[in-house]
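=== RUN LOG ===
request id: a7f3
mode: sequence -> structure
chains: 1
length: 543
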Amino acid sequence: MASEKICSILLFSAVILLLRDAPSVLAGDIVHDDDSTPKKPGCANQFVLVKVQTWVNGVEDAEFVGVGARFGRAIVSKEKNARHTRLILSDPRDCCSPPKNKLVGDVIMVDRGNCTFTRKANTAQNANASAILIINNQKELYKMVCDPDETDLNIHIPAVMLPLDAGTRLEKMLTSTSSVSVQLYSPRRPSVDIAEVFLWMMAVLTILCASYWSAWTARESAIEQDKLLKDASDEIPNTKYASVNGVVNMNVKAAVLFVVFASCFLFMLYKLMSSWFIEVLVVLFCIGGIEGLQTCLVALLSRWFKHAGEAYIKVPFLGSISYLTLAVSPFCTTFAVLWAVYRNNSFAWICQDILGIALIITVLQIVHVPNLKVGTVLIGCAFIYDIFWVFVSKKFFKESVMIVVARGDRSGEDGIPMLLKFPRIFDPWGGYSIIGFGDILLPGMLVAFSLRYDWLANKSLRGGYFLWAMCAYGFGLLITYVALNLMDGHGQPALLYIVPFTLGTLMTLGQKRGDLKGLWTSGEPQKPCPHLRLQHSGELSLE
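=== RESULT ===
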């Protein structure tokens, strides 16, 4: 049973490495790419999301989200300054020629196609419309820009594009009721997102808990092997604490293959992204979450129910399982299944975060970086992986593969489940801020290694490496959020900032204190030679 659990955790940890996106944003955001579209006088607006609130026969109804055009009048940001205006359907529908409808400051709804966006807007403006809603022919939002050779850009009414499904609902409202009015406004996001503060705290506390659990286990193993060394007379046991059951040490080859496998899986996910593939990932997440939550609960409860944790029973197909594991398994399974069923509800993010944190802690407990060399190769490769799939992939695929996968743009879902998320409570647009598991897991392996080294070397908190590695990780993640806000929501690869701070801090301190060689090679303090034996005569001899 233990070996099966280790295999499943290792497989899942390789899968979640692909989720390397930085803390980003979901639910209603558009990908800003202002520099790639032409700007000129009369066509220089920033792309903004626009709320389209509807009223049917004077009663407030559905709200839709569109995107403002590069051209036209800027849309007001405050709801109280936005007027309620009657909505009419254009005739002809494309609005490429003057509409037959008589407009008196109304908002006109038109279909995309047959002529340029600016021609539609000019036609609507000349017909005395106060704004134009252009319905896309797809479910996605499209950024409306000006052609490079256009000169007729004297447009003074707002232009907003809505997705196809919103247009279908609005058309149904217009054909089935006597009066439909709309209100257009684009509220600004707060400069500081409180959700990012909570995500930062969750990431730091997760690594903190996992590091202490890992170091405590390593120290207990070291103490136990020291006892074996004193008692053994014929056989010398292996002195590496990480060789105990339940812990797997990563080597350089595994670290490289880990990242290569993640790249292949990410590319496959990008190509096969669909609703059914998201369902597969949901199942995988549930399996990993059950294992992680079960491991954490058993470790926690075994302090109060020690006998139940040490007594085992044989279960068909599963082997020997402790009574405590048997007791918590139904709860963990039910918890994960309920999340999967209700994962689209507003409260589901809490369950997702609990499962995710438990899984990350369990992986950090099982998979160890044995020395700084392996840790450097691992997060160094992940650093390159991050930059390539977030930035460089745009050159080959015309879009950021990492961000497309994390957002679930082609799946019809809210994105992949292997993320910690927190609702943007004070953001008028709602949605979630997110952070990928890998941005916690991989640096966490290095931070946990530093605490194991400190405890085995009996170093104080300030005189060791863990405190400074932990601070470096927290500061690197903080810089990531600052960059995310400064760059107007562009997805940021967190390891771009975390790796230099965390790895640079450990190497600099190690070099300054003279411990770098030991950290790089053995990864643990020097110990007396295990071949030194006490002979029956009481004399010391070296075998």
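=== NOTES ===
The first strand starts at residue 24 and ends at 25.
DSSP finds 15 helices and 16 strands in the chain.
=== END ===
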